[in-house]
Design goal:
By secondary structure, the protein is α+β, with helices and mostly antiparallel strands. The chain is about 20% helix and about 20% strand. The chain contains 2 helices and 6 strands. It has a 6-stranded antiparallel sheet, with helices on one face. The longest helix is centred in the N-terminal third of the chain and has 14 residues.
Length: about 140
Amino acid sequence: MTLFEEQFEAFKYWRAKSSVEEPSFTPLSNGSYLITVPGIEMPPGWDRKDATILFVAPPGYPAAQPDCFWVQPGRLRLENSATPQASNDSNPIPGDTVNQRNTTWFSWHLQSWNPNNDSLITYFKVIMQRLNPAR
């Protein structure tokens, strides 16, 4: 089992404590992995109650840190119909196996990453911190 697979299994176990919908991953042709996390309850302030979160573990992960994420279905907006900060509806997932997937991309970068301590769980928590509060 690779380090990525070990971390993914830990992430899946961690998510099972709070969700019945299981995350999955898809190997991409560019050497990265697309992690899909369905059934996410969106925090207050968004125009929908739930969504799927997608993010990429890049080639070289965990030495190479994750960067940015996507929300599906696309056109995610604040409850006042405003476009979220640092987001875009037309930025595709690099190497995605689903043609023209409908997502909203968030440019959200980690301030620090330690491949010896940080994991998929760490990055998912960062994503959720970005989404709460809605902005």
